[in-house]
Specification:
CATH architecture of the largest domain: 3-Layer(aba) Sandwich
Number of helices: 8
Largest sheet: 5 strands, parallel
CATH topology of the largest domain: Rossmann fold
Number of strands: 12
Strand content: 15-25%
Structural class: alpha/beta
Number of domains: 2
CATH superfamily of the largest domain: Response regulator
Radius of gyration: 18 Å
Distance between the termini: 45 Å
């Protein structure tokens, strides 16, 4: 068994919430469970946790709204989405801020494997920035995020490189670009890039082919010269990296 973690579980179905809690606790994790998104968000400001396991369909404050609030307030807090979506694009939209998604019904072993994988990746990744000590959500949630000459807008699903005009992206393109943005300047493997946009695990060859298709579309939209990319660079045989200030 891997290292134990403090997990916040947000699920409005009491039976599923109880089942997931038991499975996680038997694996050695500490679980704080909530059936309401607003209550969970308030609790997150008061407790310490390592991961959020979040149902996409929540009453009141939606799963999407809660996910976006967590993503802006605690950018280094990993999120796993549980969703009943079978359509790939809808599933990708559900993981705009999340590290993984699980399709319901969730087998116990798949739940534990996803938790272990996301925790391992989170604990071995340098922080993206200091969390907001005030915990304030006053910032405009539609505001763009930028690094050097790269600007992305999560709620409008847009991006801009350098002096180019902002371009609208598909949810799949945005998910890929956002993943690269989170690891700015570092190579992200084909399989790590493909994970949030594929409904099933892919072989290295399959992941590379999927990424190549969508990266080509991103370069066409965003690079000043798509044939000579300056921002989205290829690490041959490995994956891609995003540069904020190309030479």
């Amino acid at each position: 068994m891997g290292q134990s973690a403090r997990i916040v579980l947000v699920e409005d179905d009491p039976d599923l919430r109880s089942l997931c809690s038991r499975v996680l606790e038997r694996a050695g994790h500490q679980v704080a469970s909530f059936g309401d998104g607003e209550v969970a968000l308030d609790a997150l400001a008061e407790i310490t946790c390592d991961l959020v396991l979040l149902d996409w369909h929540l009453p009141g404050l939606s799963g999407q709204a809660l996910m976006e609030a967590i993503g802006w307030r605690w950018p280094d807090l990993p999120i796993i989405i549980m969703t009943g979506f079978s359509d790939e694009d809808k599933a990708v939209a559900a993981v705009q801020y999340a590290q993984a998604y699980l399709r319901k019904p969730v087998p116990n072993d798949a739940l534990l494997e996803a938790v272990s994988r996301v925790l391992h990746r989170s604990r071995n990744r340098p922080p993206t920035g200091d969390p907001d000590d005030s915990g304030s959500l006053d910032a405009d949630p539609a505001a763009s995020r930028s690094a050097g000459q790269v600007v992305i807008n999560p709620l409008r699903c847009e991006a801009q490189f350098g002096d180019q005009d902002p371009e609208a992206l598909t949810v799949t393109e945005y998910a890929l670009l956002n993943r690269l943005f989170l690891d700015m300047g570092r190579v992200v493997s084909h399989q790590d890039l493909a994970e949030p946009i594929s409904p099933r695990p892919l072989s290295p060859k399959e992941a590379a082919a999927l990424c190549k298709h969508h990266i080509r579309a991103l370069r066409t939209k965003l690079e000043p010269d798509p044939t000579r990319p300056q921002f989205i660079l290829t690490a041959r045989g490995q994956g891609y990296r995003l540069e904020s200030d190309p030479a």
